[in-house]
Amino acid sequence: KAEAEGSLRALGDGARLIAIATKGGGRVTQHFGHAREFQVYEAGSGGIRFIGHRRVEDAYCQGGFGEDATLDSVIRSLAGIDVVLCAKIGGCPRKDLAAAGVKVSDDYAFEYIEAAISAFIKAEAPTIARALSA
User: For the chain, where are the E strands, in sequence order?
Assistant: First the structure.
């Protein structure tokens, strides 16, 4: 916990908005392509707090195949989001999210949301510190 708090302090005043693909239960449990909404958290020096939901018109993955037009709509719905944590994501949406400036990770699948956010921030702390000092 102390390491996670230290990583959050490394954010300084620069809070990050993190969207979580979840089916509930307080865990990162949903495939990016199946998400019809994302829970949004703010992570900053003051901790992690839930701030709302981002709904998408249609899930990206339709019958096992991704729809490009739907992916564009999902990315627009995530405007202002810095990071997406999900249980699984394919290469195409990962690439398109990166092009839109959104980091994405499925490394924390099935972990509790706050623990996943803390672990992601801890892993990214050196990158975040460099960006904030630039």
Answer: 16-20, 37-44, 47-55, 61-62, 65-66, 83-85, 103-105
